[in-house]
Amino acid sequence: MRPRIICRLLGFLLVFLAGFMATSMLWEIGEDDSKRSLVAYGTGAGLTALAGLGLILVGIRAKVGDLGRREALVIVALGWLLSGVFGGIPFVIDGAIPSPAGAFFEAVSGFTTTGSTVLTDIEVVSRATLWWRALTQWLGGMGIIVLFLAVFPQLGVGAKHMFRNEAPGPIKKSLRPKIRETALVLWLIYLAITAVEAVTLYAVGGMSPFESITHSFCTMATAGFSTRNASIAAFDRASVEMIIAFFMLLAGVNFSLYFSIVRGRLRSVYKDTELRVYLGSILALTLVVALCIAGPHGGLFQGLRYAVFQVISILTTTGFCTDDFNQYPEFCRALLVVLMLVGGMAGSTAGGMKISRILICIKAAYWEVYRAFRPQVVTSVRVGRAPVDPDVVRSVMAFFFLAIIAIVVSTLYMASLGLNLETATTSVVATLFNIGPGLAQVGAVENYAFIPPTGKVLLSFCMILGRLEFYTVLVLLLPDFWRIRGTSW
Questions:
Q1: Cα–chain-centroid distance for residue 305?
Q2: Which of 71, 67, 69, 110 is nearest to 87 (CA)?
Q3: pLDDT of residue 15
Q4: pLDDT per position as a tens digit, 369-412
Q5: Predicted local confidence at residue 472, as pLDDT
Q6: Is 159 helix (H, G, I), strand (E, B) or coil?
Q7: Helix (H) / strand (E) containing 382
Q8: Please, is 284 exposed, middle or buried when counting C-beta atoms within 10 Å of its C-beta (0-12, 13-18, 19+)?
Q9: In whole angstroms, what separates CA 96 from the centre of its chain?
Q10: How far is CA 304 from CA 29, 301, 329, in A?
Q11: In the 8-state DSSP scheme, what is residue 59?
């Protein structure tokens, strides 16, 4: 373990973060009563930069090219934790969220693209705070570590470890020979699609430049923070809903497929099994939900309008709302909870377990049942035509086990705080899988403000645990990980 390397890279990450935080001040120039917000975000950016510079000085002599697997794990886990701590500072100073626990929750919710909020009245906070909330989600969508890798060229082989510890999904694909090039390609695709959505929302949807940009940030990050209390329902325009639904759908797709499209490899995209399941699920489930809610919504057409948006929003774990699905029939509510758990495709910005993991589990279970009467058969788990490495299958099975344990333990704690079972369970599921809204007291039109501070802190850690998909965080709890084997400063 080389602590100086960890300090140096975490320091650079905080300075990097401070630069983005400072952009929030630009939206307060010329605004009435902007002094407090300017002070809040100036102070927040200054403190974050100072902390970063202090860590850089501690590790000034470290050679970042010597970054190993253990250091990479610590940097990724602590990087997300520190982003939440420092990202919440301006919320407190600006007065938007006076509670440190609430500010930490809001910042972590942003960076992990969860979209859960403790704000009871979003429309009264400053534009700087609305911008910072949206920007944290956009940075977290493709990954703050991935962006860091794209602009920091000196990491060498250590970049590969950091990329794999943050990138979502059971199989981490490299699009280019060098990890830095892969990170850069992913971010350029992400930036391009975000820009197209922002222009479309402004030109076609009639949104203001500020709202078109912030909602594009949160759509492509599949995050769900809005500038309105009623979320997307506040605009009450079918054009806005359909534009955002379309881009949510794009954000839930594996970004490596967009790279294949750019390279002209359309055949590989068409044959992608996970993509077919993803699109087929959206189509089928939209029809089911539309039929269930057609009556209360005045007909099938209106039912389809709301069903399309809600199904895509929940499956991609974005969390934007145009309707209160907490009022849907019990069957639809149960179906939406299942969608929350599933999530989008691996390699997308969506949360959830990922469709690829579900497919691997189904195939593995099928072959185990098959071997019950033909144990001599030797076969391998395949997704499409591609065989899945046995190590990946074991990793997926362990992922599901860890998810169940985390849900059970966290739900018991939340219930001990006085929450009813439905609220306690879905608050944990919604944060652990970076979904945002749950059911009952944390439903589509509710928020997390009423949860006690210790509950907010627990749910914040659930968000980080889910965003980093368990292993990167839990490995830090193993005593062997910290055994001193040649620790060097």
A1: 25
A2: 110
A3: 94
A4: 888 888 877 777 777 777 888 888 888 889 899 999 999 999 99
A5: 85
A6: helix
A7: strand 382-383
A8: exposed
A9: 23
A10: 42, 5, 16
A11: T
Helices 273-293, 330-342: inter-axial angle, 10-degree rounding: 160
Q: How far apart are the first and last CA of the chain?
A: 9
d(CA 314, CA 336): 7
**CB neighbours of residue 298 within 10 Å:** 10
Cβ contact 55:14 at 8 Å: yes
Phi and psi of 362, rounded to 5°? Answer: -60, -45
- Count of alpha carbons within 13 Å of 80, Cβ hemisphere only? 33
Phi/psi-derived region of residue 35, left when phi > 0, alpha when psi is between -120 and 50, beta in every other case: alpha
Identity of the residue numbered 245: A
pLDDT value of position 163: 64
Please report the DSSP string for 83-139 in residue order.
HHHHHTHHHHHHTS---HHHHHHHHHHHHTT------S-GGGS-HHHHHHHHHHHHH
Residue 484: predicted pLDDT: 60
Distance CA 356, CA 358 (A): 5
Q: How far apart, in whole angstroms, are the C-alpha atoms of residue 461 and residue 81?
A: 9
The residue among 11, 215, 50, 13 whose CA lies nearest residue 133 is 215
What is residue 81's predicted lDDT score, i.e. its pLDDT?
Answer: 94
- State the Cα–Cα distance between residues 143 and 464, nearest whole angstrom: 12
- The ranges of the chain with pLDDT < 50 are 488-489
Tell me which H or E stretch contains 281: helix 273-293
The reported pLDDT for the residue numbered 489 is 45
> What is the distance between the alpha carbons of residues 460 and 14, in angstroms, rounded to a whole number?
19
